[in-house]
Amino acid sequence: MGRITLEGVQKSFGPVHIIKGADLDIPDGAFVVFVGPSGCGKTTLLRLIAGLEDVSGGRILIDGNNVVDVPPAKRGLSMVFQSYALYPHMSVRGNIAFGLKMAGLPKAEINRKVEAAAATLNLTPYLDRKPRELSGGQRQRVAIGRAIVREPKAFLFDEPLSNLDAALRVQMRLEVTRLQKQLGTTAIYVTHDQVEAMTMADKIVVLNAGRIEQYGSPIELYQRPANLFVAGFIGSPKMNLITGAEADKHNATTIGVRPEHIGIVEAGNEGWSGKVVIAEHLGSDTFLYVDAGALGTLTVRVVGEKRLNAGDAVMLRPEPSRIYRFDANGNSMFA
Amino acid sequence: MATRQTQLLARALMSPAVILLFIWMIVPLALTVYFSTLHYSLLDPGSESFVGLENFEYFLTDPAFLASLQNTLVLVGSVLLLTIGLGIPLAILLDQPVIGRNVIRLMVIAPFFVMPTVSALVWKNLLMHPVSGLFAWIATSLGMTPIDWFTDAPLLAVIFIVAWQWLPFATLILLTALQSLDEEQKEAAEMDGAGALSRFIYLTLPHLARPITVVILIETIFLLTVFAEIFVTTGGGPGLQTTNIAFLVYSQALIQFDVGTASAGGLVAVVIANIVAFFLVRIVGRNLEA
Amino acid sequence: MARKVTGRHVVISTAGAWIAGFVIFFPILWMVLASFKTELEAFATPPSFLFFHWTTENYVTVQERSDYLHHALNSLIVAGGSTLIAMLIAIPAAWSMAFSPTKRTKDILLWMLSTKMMPPVGVLVPIYLIYKNLGLLDTRTGLVFILCLGNLPIVIWMLFTYFKEIPKDILEAARMDGATIGRELIYVLTPMAIPGLASTLLLNLILAWNEAFWTLNLSTLEAAPLTTFIASYSSPEGLFWARLSAASTLAIAPILIIGWFSQKQLVRGLTFGAVK
Asked: Which member of B20, B167, B287 has the closest CB to residue C273?
């Protein structure tokens, strides 16, 4: 079991409030991603759950028990660090076994578990190597092996993929997701990369300036962002935000349209006229950056190849049902 | 970034060192201050009496003080000039593609590990002896008159000995710094059309500014207290020609047994060293942030 | 990374570096050669460089006449003892400052450094008198104590800069893995810190071995380490060059070897981490 509940959790370093009261309920077995810009407090929140920092207020419940005064090792969690934090002087085997050794398990059982973990992660040939003899991806796997071998109530991941190159990151992303589903263990995963968040999470927590902006499934966040911040943060390329007369027409302070919800129509139709500033041709998609006069520069995503180039005049038409409306406080107004 | 528990432990672990160093700093220094206000001679025990600042007046107006202050400054300044002036080209030379660099490094660093009494005596006798020393033989072979170092130029002789001991230190630090100079920066400068000389002036020297400062400050702290080299070669003489502040205080204390004046002199040395230390601590402290 | 280098460049810089290295090393070489000469040859003009009558009798004489081994043992005890005690005090202090820094840690470190900058001559008088009253003059205990205190700031600083380089993540990982502070020390911190501990130990051994202010002033015969012993050759009647050279060679040989091994750490150790 691994249900984690936060009740009014606060953290301040001196006068600086890093976490300004977080309430959250993470069901057992869920893969929850904390996402937000750097400095939003997502890593601090994770470290509070881990017990590596003391909370300044509030309660953290693991399976119903308040753990704020329980030392990290006794919380039954394991953590994968951004730097991997492998013990450089120990072999892969030693690294994975360390937690079990500390727990005082018999040797035979430790060996059995380490080897099972190594087999799951394709690390068996490397068990007797030192971390420095491994590639980045292998080190990453060792760090994960160290986490799973203890059969924790939950895994905590602190930006674990940020030190890998792009191709490896995609591969490890899949592996981590697959492994978590296979083990069915609760996972909390911190990242600043919203693509990682969208692809891996059952539920996403969007954090900004020490507050939880929204908590929901990836599609909920995409379709019904609670406010301007979430709308702008989730989705790539970013949502176009328009203020002024065009927003007034929709009785909103700001309206937002995602690049994929803007179509290109024949000249003479109703719509927003503009001029292409830059066209990025990816083959599968075409991204257009269009100067639309008073509306500002809009990003438009067209599926497939669109033969448009810089300087071409275009007529844009947003899908009316896909226009998001925000009030003066930046909160969403849903119809 | 730690929990309360670990912070308490941290404080407990730190206290022995802090307490010891505090005592080590404060007790002798307080005693020195106290003695410096007394008329106190070991030759005349029981005659201690409070004399206020008389010892300072005596020490500071003693012609020996001015002479030794001057000797101290000349010694420190000359050794700094020699070690840095020779250290920079030497470090640059060792930074070149040189065959057998590791062996050369060992030879260059060696003098630093020689205890001061040994280097002083080897230089004084085997090298600088006016008749049988190697330098005398070289001078004679070249048709020159050998220099009687410790009679005609005693301070210069001491300067050479001390500079020989500290040249490795300067070289090694500058070499380490040179090796940390980004290769791509050099290449960028080359692409920008900078010749070897411009690269040295605009790239290497600014890069060395900080290590040079560090060398100057650290050497100064040690050079202000040069003692053994003088003790075994000249004993401060002839006359006062090689007496520096450290040696003057020593002779006042343990040769003339004048505790009061020696204490006053010791405090003067502390003040001088603190002026240097002030700058060094600031530089090192700035480095702590990084 | 590889830059193109002309052959001529290599030849010139190699020749220059070898000449410079040889000149700097020469006094030591000359001393070692003299230690194998007879007193007459050591004193002879013109000097003989290699073609002299090689002898080891000076080494025998040094031991027989002046009990060299006694002073070598003193050096070993004083340098080794003071370094070990300093390490014992410094390790916990540096550990806590590196891993649980507070707002005052920086100030404490700089204050410790500043105690090293106090010129010893400033406290010579009280230390001498205290030692005289406590009967510590010319004792190994007295020297161990003073050298330990004198080098403590450097030891703490060096260890601090090494500990600082151990990633904090790793200690946190150990804590997540359930290691208590004691086990964290034994299984994680110590193995990772061993290179730093070793070089700190070596550098301070060198500094203590070569220390020549307190040893000269606080020891005369019984506790005299090699620094003081060699200084006794400065008296005019002690001008036996070959013997001086033999004693000197013996005195510097072990430390020269240790020094050569630890030269890389020397820079950061002596600059308090300001140059790496």
From this structure: B287
